[in-house]
Amino acid sequence: MRPTSGLRCADYKAPGGKLLRVRLTVTEHVTPPLITSLRLTGDFFMHPEEAILDLEERLVGAPLEARTLQERLQAFLETGVEMIGASVEDIVHLLLSAEEADTL
Amino acid sequence: MPQTWRLLQHGARNAYDNMAIDEAILRCVTGRMVPPTLRFYRWQPSAVSIGYFQGLEQEIDREACTTHGVDVIRRLTGGGAVYHDYEGEITYSLAIPDDYPGLPRKILDSYDALCRGLVIGLRALGMPAEFKPINDITVNGRKISGNAQTRRSHGILQHGTLLCDVDPHLMFTLLRVPNEKIRDKLIAGVEERVTSIRREMGSVDRERVTQALIDGFAEALDITLVPGELIDHEIALAQTLKEEQYATNEWIAMR
Fold it and tell me: How many domains does chain A have?
């Protein structure tokens, strides 16, 4: 097996929603891997916009596993942020579908 | 009694001035220094704008933009990348307080309400325009207008574009495509998914179209639009916002 960079990428078009893209790095030595950094991009909407940094921060350190991701995203929305064109389920799906990428 | 709004019919400015002016207007509207405002404007040089959350390198071929003399800017609003051709589109923005009478509280519904002006204007020109959630307007199922909102300091800024003429080749030269193999397919797909004033009307009379939109907004929102100018504070604020934010690489390449 070749060594990996730990970088994973995914694009996901939410049904009836917008295109979500993620690049994330994970620790490879535990199962499920832990998110060490993450950048969420796309043509969705979020109000207030600056909250995207809070969302990304909340996901760092999380295991790449549906229930925890869901809980963290739910807690994020409960701060009063509104997302349009992307749901909690869409983002969880996006993160879990991220596949190893060769290059940065 | 109809509310009185300010109407700004701006000519062409560069991308950084345009986005800075939209935010300056929003701030002065929420500060109750100016009335709710509807603005029309153009982009010179032509520019690509990307949504607040988009990755610059993911969406834009910056080298191609430089080659074609096209500016690149990040918007304050979410949504997708848009090519704002100097000739090829009409851009509007509107700014109102978020407690504006009669405006639906839900953001999705407010898009519908605020896009009514465009829909009515296009219908008056003979096009069967319809609002298509989340934030588009279509004619015969093809997109003719995209719109985007931000909400801050108890105000709403919505800006959007109306396509007058489309050059899919140029568009997909400036915008990145997932891989080269599908470039031609995407270009061909524009015919299917997108339309323009030229395609629907056979020609583009910018003045007539803009007037139809103005009348459409007046009817949709039951407002009286009074031609006006930016106030000194807006001009100064826009200058600061341009220099400190919109024209900086930190902002443009933020993600």
Answer: 1
